[in-house]
Amino acid sequence: MTSPYAFSAETFKRVQPSEYYRKFLEQDVRPDGRAFSQFRKTILNAGCISTANGSAVVRIGDTTVVCGIKAEVAEPTLDQPAAGYFVPNVELGPLCSAKFRPGPPGDLAQVVSERLRKLSEEYIAFEELCIEPEQAAWVVYADLVCLNHDGNVLDACQLALLAALKNARLPEAQIGEDGIVRAGEAFTRAITIKRPILAATFGLYEGRSLLADPNASEEPLLDSLVTVCVDDAEHLHAVWKSNGGRCSLEQLQRCVELARIRFTELSALLESSAADQ
Amino acid sequence: MTTVTTAVGGVASFLLFFRAVCSLFIGATSFAMSRVELLNPEGLRVDGRRANELRKLSCKLSPLQHADGSAYIEQGNTKVLAVVYGPRETRHRAQVMHDRAYINVEYLVAPFSAGERKKRSKNDKRLLELALAVKQTFDSVVMTTLHPRSQIDIYLQVLQDDGGALQASINAATLALVDAGVPMVDYVCACTGGCVDSQALLDLNHIEESSAETPDLTVAILPRSGKVTLLQMTSRVHSDQFEQMLNLAMEGCRQVHAVLDSSVRDSMQQLADQMTHR
C-alpha cells in the first residue's frame, strides 16, 4: 500500500527538480532516456518559405527555429566600402515558451543574435556581396523566429542560419550610370559560405557530468554551459562558457572532441537537405 | 483601398540607400505593378482557381506540445501558427476582471513573411488593429465568464503571407482555442471575398488583395447561428456588389468550417485512441 505522503514521479519532478534529476544521473542516464553525450534527434528542412530569399526550419528535439533570409540593397559602411553586411536577429517571443514575456527582446535573444553575428564574420564572403564599392552592396537580413524553446537555441539557430544561407538565392544586380541599382528577375546567385561552422552546446552538472545538448528542463539545473563552434577543418572558431561554474581542462577537451563528432553528423544533414532540392 | 506606408529616414544620406532599394523593388516586381488580368475570359484566376473556389486549406492541431493549445494552418501559401496559453493568472493586476477572463491577443508577423522585408514593431498600429479585431471577435465567442480573474493569451505568428493573413489567423486561433480546451459557444470561421469586374471572388491571394481596384472584405461568422462576428472592408464598392461578395464570403466560411471541424474530429479521435490503447 502506498503511503499517503508518497509523491508520484511527476509531482516529485515539480517539487524537487534537482533531486529528481540527480536520481537519474546517479544511474548514468538522463530523464528523457538519453546518454550523457547524446544529442537529441535533429531534423532540417530547407526552402519551406517561398516569400524569403532563403529559409530553413530546424528541430532539435522539440526546439524549433525558423530562419528566413531577406536581401536588400544599401550603401556599404564607411569602414568596409567594398563589402556587404549581415544582420541576424533572433526572436524568442512569448509564444515559444511560457517563460518569455511579451515586450522587447530579452537577454538570451540578444546574446544569441550577437553570437550568430560574430560567427558570421568567419564564414560569409562579404566582399562578394558588394555590388559597387562605396555605392551599393547587399545587406543580408536573417530573421530567426523560435517557435518552441526547449533548450539549446544557439545550436538550432546556427544550423538553421547556415542551412538558410546555403538555400538563399539573390538576383544579379548592377549599378547603372544613373546610380540606380537594377536587379534581374531570376534568383540565381548563391551566397558563398567559405567554410561551414556549427555549434555544439554542453552542460556541466555539479562540475562532474558533461551533458550534451541540454533541454529546457535541464538548463536551469546546470552550473555552466559550454558552446564549441568548429568548422570542417576541425578548427575551433568560438568557445563560450557561461554561468560561471568551474570546468576542468579535460572536460573542455571532451567538449571539443564531441563537438567535432557532432559537426560531421550535422554537415551530413546539411548535405542531404541541399541534395533534396 | 490599399494603403502603402513607407518609412523613410529623414537624413539626406539615406536618400541614396532609399533610391537604391526602391528601384530594386520596382525592378524585381514590375510585373506585379502593371495591371494583371485577375480573371481571364474563361473565368479562371491568376492561380488557376474558379471565382468561388477556396485555396487548399490544411490544418494541424497541437503541433507544439509545450503550450496549452496550438494550431498550424496553411491556406494556399499563407502559413500561420496560433498558440494559446491559459486560462492562467493575469500578468498585470489592472487586467483582472472579477467576473470574466481577459483575452490578450498578440499578432506577430515574421519579417520574411511578405515580398518586401519589413521589420514591424509590436506597437505597429496596423498590427495592433488586427490584434484588436481578433480579440473582439473572440471576446464574444469564448465563454469568458467561466474563468473569472484569469487571462487567456492568444499568440498569432504569421510565417508566410500570401494574402488573407487575418482570416487564416482567426481560423488558426479557433483551432488553438479548441485544442486548449477553452469553452466557446461555436467555431469562428473567417474568409475573404473580393470583386473583379462585378464578379465576386472567394479567398483572395496576395496578387488579388494588393491590386488597388479590387475591393476586398474579411468576414468571420459563427457557422451554427450564421451570425457575423467580424466584418472588415475599407474599399469603395457598390452595395449590390457588396451583398454578392458578402454572401460568397459567408459561403466560404461554411466551407472553412467543414475543414476545421473535420480536423478537430480527427485530432480528438487520435487522442481518444491514444488514451484507450494505453
Describe this structure in words.
Chain A: InterPro entries: ExoRNase_PH_dom1, ExoRNase_PH_dom2, ExoRNase_PH_dom2_sf, Exosome_comp_Rrp42_subfam, PNPase/RNase_PH_dom_sf, Ribosomal_Su5_D2-typ_SF, Rrp43. Chain A: It is found in: Cytoplasm; Nucleus, Nucleolus. Chain A: Keywords: Cytoplasm, Exosome, Nucleus, RNA-binding, rRNA processing. The complex is a heterodimer of chains A (277) and B (278). With 277 residues, chain A is of the alpha+beta class. Chain A is built from five helices and twelve strands. Chain A has one domain (39-275): 2-Layer Sandwich (Ribosomal Protein S5, domain 2). In chain A, strands 1, 2, 3, 4, 5 and 6 form a six-stranded mixed beta sheet that branches. A four-stranded antiparallel beta sheet of chain A has the order 10-9-11-12, with helices on both faces. In chain A, strands 7-8 form a two-stranded antiparallel sheet. In chain A, strand 2 (54-60) and strand 3 form a beta hairpin. The model of chain A has no long low-confidence stretch (mean pLDDT 91). Chain B has 278 residues and is an alpha+beta fold. Chain B has one domain: Ribosomal Protein S5, domain 2 (2-Layer Sandwich). Chain B is built from five helices and nine strands; from the N terminus they run H-E-E-E-E-H-E-H-E-E-H-E-E-H. Chain B has a five-stranded mixed beta sheet. A four-stranded antiparallel beta sheet of chain B has the order 7-6-8-9, sandwiched between helices. The longest helix of chain B is centred in the last third of the chain and has 38 residues, at 239-276. Chain B is globular, with a radius of gyration of 20 Å. Classes of the chains: A alpha+beta (277), B alpha+beta (278).
Topology pattern of chain A, helix = H, strand = E: HHEEEEHEEHEEEEEEH
Can you say what the CATH homologous superfamily of chain A is? GHMP Kinase, N-terminal domain
**Helix and strand succession of chain B?**
HEEEEHEHEEHEEH
Largest interface: chains, residues each: A-B, 42 and 39 residues
Number of β-strand runs of chain A: 12
Rough shape of chain A?
Answer: elongated
Question: What percent strand of chain A?
Answer: 25-35%
Helical run tally of chain B: 5
Uncertain runs of chain A are none
Please give the domain count of chain B: 1
The CATH architecture assignment of chain A turns out to be: 2-Layer Sandwich
Q: How many domains is the backbone of chain A divided into?
A: 1
What's the shape of chain B?
globular
Here the CATH topology of chain B equals Ribosomal Protein S5, domain 2
CA radius of gyration of chain A: 21 Å
Strand neighbour order, sheet with most strands of chain B: 1-2-3-5-4
For this structure, the quaternary state is heterodimer
Main beta-sheet annotation of chain B: 5 strands, mixed
What is the CATH architecture annotation of chain B?
2-Layer Sandwich
DSSP E strands of chain B, number = 9
The largest pleated sheet of chain A is described as:
6 strands, mixed
GO cellular component, one term (chain A): cytoplasmic exosome (RNase complex)
Subcellular location (chain A): Cytoplasm; Nucleus, Nucleolus
Protein name (chain A): Ribosomal RNA-processing protein 43
Family (chain A): Belongs to the RNase PH family.
